[in-house]
Amino acid sequence: MMSKFKESRNIKTPDLATSSTSDIVFILLFFFMVTSSMKESMIMVIEKTPEATEVKKLENKSLVSSIHVGVPQPNFQKAFGTMTRIQLNDRFATLEDIRTFIAAERDKLNEVDRNKMTIQLKIDENTKMGVVNDLKQALRQANALKISYSAKKTKAIF
Amino acid sequence: MRRRNIPRITSGSMADVSFILLFFFLMVSSMDSDYGLIRQLPPLADEGSKNEETKVNERNVFIVLINQHDQLQVEGQLMDIRNLRAKTKEFFLNPSNNPNLSDKKEEEIPLFGKVMISKGVVSLQNDRGTSYKTYMMVQNELTGAINEMREEAAKARFAVGYDDLTEEQRDAIGKYIPMNISEAEPRDIGGNK
Prior knowledge:
Helix content of chain B: 25-40%
Number of strands of chain A: 10
Distance between the termini of chain B: 106 Å
Radius of gyration of chain A: 26 Å
Distance between the termini of chain A: 78 Å
Number of helices of chain B: 5
Order of helices and strands of chain A: HHEEEEEHEEHEHEE
Largest sheet of chain A: 6 strands, mixed
Number of helices of chain A: 5
Helix content of chain A: 25-40%
Number of strands of chain B: 9
Order of helices and strands of chain B: HEEHEEEHEEEHHE
Strand content of chain B: 15-25%
Radius of gyration of chain B: 27 Å
Structural class of chain B: alpha/beta
Strand content of chain A: 15-25%
Shape of chain B: elongated
CATH architecture of the domain at 58-147 in chain B: 2-Layer Sandwich
Oligomer: heterodimer
Largest interface: A-B, 55 and 47 residues
CATH class of the domain at 58-147 in chain B: Alpha Beta
Structural class of chain A: alpha/beta
CATH topology of the domain at 58-147 in chain B: Nucleotidyltransferase, domain 5
Low-confidence stretches of chain A: none
Shape of chain A: elongated
Largest sheet of chain B: 5 strands, mixed
Low-confidence stretches of chain B: 186-193
């Protein structure tokens, strides 16, 4: 009798096999690396892009440059106010800077790709069209004519 | 020979290391993919070519105005944005050849042959106080109207949806139903009546 009890006390619950956890996490890691894109610059404006149903995906990421338009984020409002501002790369800019920005972005591309350059306009939905019209006019002056109004893809807008 | 014990590599911390990597990528990357309405801006007009642009016949211009209160005026009438898509399609297709809607011209298009093409142009004008949200809704509806017409044309001519067409067929459809949305110099188009 006694020996039977002793035997059962010796049985230990087996360790949980943890060696495959790293594999699982690596798969997760690769998934995120493939599906996501790096943030090139810190966004300093509030940009809630409008929703649209007829949007197309931008094909070639390397040909795309972004311009952000919106009200500065709360932590920048002390220094930059609450008026709608334009952000190029990682600083606030004026309409006069658009031309140099476009020229710099165009220089980064190959000679053959330069006319395929697309400007992605990430504009907050509460922006007034006056600012957008001025921006578009500046882009025309800089001869950057292919643009994309950034929007979120939805099924229905009404 | 005496068997030596090879010390095992402790793989327990491997998971921690890869978790740190995972969190790093989660922090620095963004998931939102880049969708948008793609448009081609017209080049800056020379002084000489301005007069030519204003010669568009009045019946061929579909004037869409948005005021600073985000109200929509289409062809002189207030309109709800929900009706814009149907109205735009009616203007371009003009099935009953209504003299108030867009005129058509005969043109030779590859894969289509001789077909009637609408001469219509959408003139989109907005106030400086119009909100970008409304503007995008209008742009979306106008694009939607054109996409729907292209889809119907693709189904009628090639018996497949627009997305499944070849490059050549898409070009033909693009010529058959061009995307004529003009907003370049708002004051020049439809302004002198």
